[in-house]
Amino acid sequence: MLKEDIQNRIDKNYNFKFNQNAQNLELYPYFNEVSTASSPVIKVNGANMLNFGSNNYLGLTTHEKVLSESIASLKKYGSGVTGSRLLNGTLDVHKKLENKIANFYNKEASLVFPTGYTTNLGLLSSLLTSEDIAIIDAQIHASVYDGLRQARCTIRSFKHNNIEDLEKTIMSCKIKPTVCVVEGLYSMFGDAGNIKAICGICEKYSITLIVDEAHSVGVLGNKGRGAAELQQVMDKVDVFTITFSKSLGSCGGAIVGPKKIIEFVKVNAKPFLFTAGNTPASLTSALTCLNLLDANPSFIKELHQKKDFLIALLKEKGITPLSKDGPIISLALGNDDQVITTWKKLMDKRVFCNPVLFPAVKKGKGLIRLSIMRTHTIEQLKLLVSSLESVIQSNTI
Ligand code: PMP
After folding, report:
1. Residue 120's closest CA among 99, 151, 161?
2. Locate the Aminotransferase class I/classII large domain: which residues (predicted)?
3. Best residue among 141, 148, 220 to mutate for probing ligand 1, ranked by most atoms within 8 Å of CB
4. Do residues 177 and 133 touch, judged by C-beta distance below 8 A?
């Protein structure tokens, strides 16, 4: 039995949308069980489905080289480092990966974290204080918010990707903001950040610019370094954060930027110091994926070819995604019921995708979020579009 105060708190605050027990399970879209590797076809809740719900944009989680190197790493280093990086959890592979990332981004240094979430959390919570103002895009990821909240700094957001509002927000601050944090590719709408213009504003007001390229690494730019590379402003961005959990087929994240910032964060970030280091196999898979990306820029072209093919096909059917910038193809649906009903109909047609509801987006502005992989076949993309077409036609609400 739970103690009464805790029981009451839970009863009062339960978000029933996310409560598997309180829902009609048929229409419950979360925590589906996948029993295969992340590929274009996966088994979800025991049924084979087309996978349009993964962030495995380059399809590298099952690449032969990634698997063989990761297995060798598991055998060499064992299953876990069992301790903080500070004390006993730093492997030579951490160092190799950090060097690789720093070189890839042409920056002085890099620091690897256990997840992308703790990367932003660690960087921002250690670098900023209650004296600072941080400027963020209104669509910024929760990990950035949480890092800033932990730092207790003042958070000022500007309208999504809106440069005039960014400048207005900066000018309305009583003291000069310390940092501006934006994303290279936004995870819900799928649109690229206007990094070039943001660089100009940050330069004008002497504000340190941090760009989270979580979804854009491996996806944007000739070498796959993200939106800043695509917009040719890599040297104007002070610090990048990335994750390994999307195109880099693993789990973990990294900061990359000036040595002085990296060295400071390394000995001050609690989400870095008070948690165990990455598992050896996950480090090696990230490193192998990065090496593969570096050696095969054609991967990025292949992904964009698939994306362009899909968007052209959608256009023929009168379906317009929110953005054409990358592999996140979001369709505006409306209220929660419309989103969930559409998601369920797609599942019935063996199409797995992600419903996006409030609070990830504004109330009544729910989305169906499809993400494509380099390894999807043309046939699979055609199947997706024919399923979408019939589901959208059948929607009456
Ligand atoms: N930043 C952004 C922009 C993200 O979308 C995410 C996760 N979706 C993260 C950071 C956190 O990354 P991870 O899931 O690897 O912890």
Report:
1. 151
2. 48-387
3. 141
4. yes
Q: Is 212 in the pocket of ligand 1 (CB under 6 A)?
A: yes
Tell how far the Cα of 116 is from the centroid of ligand 1, in angstroms.
5
Closest by CA position to 122, among listed 157, 95, 97, 86: 86
Domains and CATH numbers, the chain: 4-57+297-394 (3.90.1150.10), 64-295 (3.40.640.10)
Number of continuous H segments (helices) and E segments (strands) in the chain: 14, 13
pLDDT tens-digit series, residues 55-73: 999 999 999 999 999 999 9
- Cα of 190 to ligand 1 centre, how many Å? 14
pLDDT digits (tens, 9 = 90+) for 35-54: 999 999 999 999 999 999 99
Cβ pair 109, 262 in contact under 8 A: yes
145 lines ligand 1 (CB under 6 A): no
Which atom of ligand 1 is nearest the CA belonging to 118? 16
pTM for the full predicted model: 0.96
